[in-house]
Amino acid sequence: MSNALNFFDLELLTVAFNNLKSQKLRSALSILGIVIGITAIITLISLGEGLNASVQQQFDELGTNTLTVLPGGGFAESLFSELEEDDADTIENIRGVESATAIYLNTVRVEFGEETKSVIVYGVKANKIGNLSDLGFVRIEEGRDLVPQDSHNIVIGPRLADGFFENEILLRENLKVNDEKLRVVGIMESARHFFGAIFNSAIVTTFEDLDRLSDDDLTPFRVMVQVAPGQDMDDVKERIEARLEKDHDKKDFQITSPQQAAEAAGSIISILQLVLAGIAAISLIVGGVVIMNTMIMAVAERTHEIGVLKAIGATNYSIQAIFLAEAALIGLIGGVIGVILGALLSQGASFAVEASLGLSFQVSISPTIAGIALGFSIVVGVLSGLIPAIIASRLDPIEAMRHH
């Protein structure tokens, strides 16, 4: 048993592995506890990393020269605040601004075939309708884009065209929108970023048509600002804030850049990721408790065997090493399986998001994360086996050999 003094000795690991094999069901249940915890941790961390990377990519696609003006000073306030009708024109006259596009929205009743459903309609003033394409919100896959001269013509999102109603909406078909017939002249391609995704199941038309279809007075949902080339984004933002605050007599709006929004989203995702990983770690601790319970039972069942080993010269450390090796193997096997399952679940979730929402969402498991998770599972296994190992090593050899 002298070789057992080396924790990484091949003979020691072989003995530990054979002991686990002899108790297949109990070992499998112990490993399962580790698998569940590591799978949850790997899945949540990789999904969080993938979501963060995807969000950063989406903001990058908006470009570095785009500002978004929203009503209210925060999410809660935005529900009760409105931008003013002339805000876009005011912003466009500010030094350093290339263009300002007000986007309006309303919910309308759409009849197609025998079905009637509520659909969101986005409208942009006719002379700015082409800016939606410049901003990357609207890209036409079939038909054509709207032009300033359009009236009673609409462009629809791909999910509205196919899958929203029982029958597919084809190019040049008419939709009855709030009792008016509007003709489909274009079908958009599926948006690859979060901001364009709001158009996937919507109708896009000119503000003039939307205003005519709406019973209420419309105010801008948001204003998209393109900063002129060579202008400092922060300076332009400050000038817009000062002018709007003066015109509104208060700061009832917010202005965000893609970089700021990306940082805010990244912070929220990181906090959420940490909380979820902490919850997942609890399941790993539960798995550790299961290992401890299993090994304490194993000590009771193998008391005679431990007595024999001590009688032929095994030291207390040798006995401890055997049980700790078994616990470490449980952690290692459970960790490896958990990392693999976590990677598979993450990829499955990635494919599901891309298939259902049409958004780019890639996840990957970094070797560092996999290594940390694997090391963590082994540590949990060893710590869980520590008390049973000490109990086993302190058994009196004579009393232990009498135990059957």
UniProtKB/TrEMBL annotation:
Domain MacB-like periplasmic core: start-end pairs: 27-242
Keyword Glycosyltransferase: no
Segments crossing the lipid bilayer: 28-48, 274-300, 321-345, 365-392
Protein name (database record): ABC transporter permease
Subcellular location, record wording: Cell membrane
UniProt cross-references to PANTHER family, sorted A to Z: ABC TRANSPORTER PERMEASE YTRF, MEMBRANE COMPONENT OF TRANSPORTER-RELATED
GO molecular function: transmembrane transporter activity
GO CC, alphabetical: plasma membrane
Family per similarity comment: Belongs to the ABC-4 integral membrane protein family.
Pfam family, any one: FtsX
Keywords: Cell membrane, Membrane, Transmembrane, Transmembrane helix
Domain ABC3 transporter permease C-terminal as annotated: residue spans: 279-397
Keyword Membrane among record annotations: yes
UniProt cross-references to InterPro entries, sorted A to Z: ABC3_permease_C, MacB_PCD, Macrolide_Exporter_MacB
Membrane topology: Multi-pass membrane protein
